[in-house]
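Hi support team,

I submitted a single chain yesterday and got back a structure, but I'm not sure I'm reading the token output correctly. Could someone confirm the output below corresponds to the sequence I sent? I've pasted both exactly as they appear in my results page.

Thanks,
R.
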Amino acid sequence: MRSFRLFFAALLLFALVAGCIKNDVPYPVIEAAITVFRVQGQKGAANINVAERSVTVDLADTVDVKKVKILQFEVSDNATVSPDVVSVVDMSQPLVYTLTTFQDYVWTIKATQSIERSIELENQVGSAIFDEFSKIAIVSVSNTTPLNNIKVKSMKIGPQGSVITPDFTTVTDFTTAREFKWDYKGRSETWLIKVVKSDVSVVTGTANAFAKYVMANGEFQAGSGNPTFVYRKASESSWTTFSGEVAVNGGTFSAKIADLEPSTEYVIKSKVGELYGSEVTFTTEAALQVENSDFENWIKEGKSWFPNLDLTSEHYWWDSGNRGANTLGEKNPTVAEESVVVKGKAAKLSSSAIVGVFAAGNIYTGKYVKTVGIGAQLDFGIPFTSRPSSLKGYYNYTSGTIDKTKDKFAHLKGVKDTCHIYAVLADWPAPYEINTTKEIFLDVANDKNIIAYGDLLDGAGTDGKYKEFEIKLTYRDLSRKPKYILIVAAASKYGDYFTGSTSSVLYVDEFSLSYD
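Hi R., thanks for writing in. Yes, this is the structure output for that exact sequence:
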């Protein structure tokens, strides 16, 4: 009996231990993600948000949203997708897919589709106003135009190519609102068009002020004359008439008025013949520069060099990967250069291997937060509220042959390295957090907070000489203002992925922002 009890206890103990071992061994965490999504008729790249596990794609107005053809659907390695991906899908409602590795990850794909609508009448004042919810459009005409004799010059209330009934060219009486219906590939909508008289024939619209120019808009009675603008400094009394090109679109007009002074208050008003719109006041932005962008000031703390006057919050504008490199050795990939320069000092960015780990020479506006494994956590961007037109400067690049690669970039071994210089303006709520160990990087193509972007790539080199550059910033939205600026220079484009040449060297000097 005692032997049986001992045997039973041993079995129970084995079962408990086995159970503990089984429960204490977790499955690996390999998150699954949609990496590429493309459909026929989409506008621009899909917005893939890994954090929210969502994809948004903008469709052209000619696409039948209930019959969308999928051209490309790719997921991260080793992930399966449920339900099966079919070639044609109904995107009038969000699509939901479950991606599975060792765990399930639910992703949502949705489509947006906007129709560009317009109506142009003879003697129209301003643009038509469209109420998408009520399906009502209101169009203003001059006060002297009889509502029973309206000439409709053009109308687009549905997708491109849709048929409108009745034929708008035959309808002239708008003493009451008139119904028009569009039909396109089985879809249709009915809109109510209302024409009203306007007592105002010239309107001064918005004034979107940059540092040295303003984008001005106005409204007028189409065909009543040649519209333009007059403007002055708020502190002065005399007006200047704008003599440049004015873009006219029906009853609206716009112009870019340049040669203004930064941080200055101005007054502007529309002008058609001897008629003027009301006065609108605006203040131009400051023509801000990034401190130490000529790379004259350097300070050393511990083993690391920093391209700043000091490390106080007021002057800590630039950082590099030096602190990460110094956790493995004494080497600073980014240092001051006093011989190979345009003027004074420059920044020398040298890619190298430190204890076998590839480290790209780099410099960026922001801060190195901490070392994470063999990688790093960075804060990209510094506070900045102006909107420059370009980044100018000089660079001198020697491109080595890639001899260090990692994972999916192994195919690049043996090809020439490429340097990368780029600038970003964004309205992120905080500096953008980068984590090279977790491969969390800036997604320039899909980041909705990015307002403007421009870059330079060079895989050939500059033959040992400095080359002047200007990176034009392409604005994705002219109505938003930035909160951060990010400027990055790297001797190896794929340095974030520990891939590049240990012989690549990039010198940069005399960076500046242009506001023309």
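A quick pointer for reading it: The chain has four domains: 34-113, 118-198, 202-283, 299-514. Let us know if anything else looks off.

Best,
Support desk
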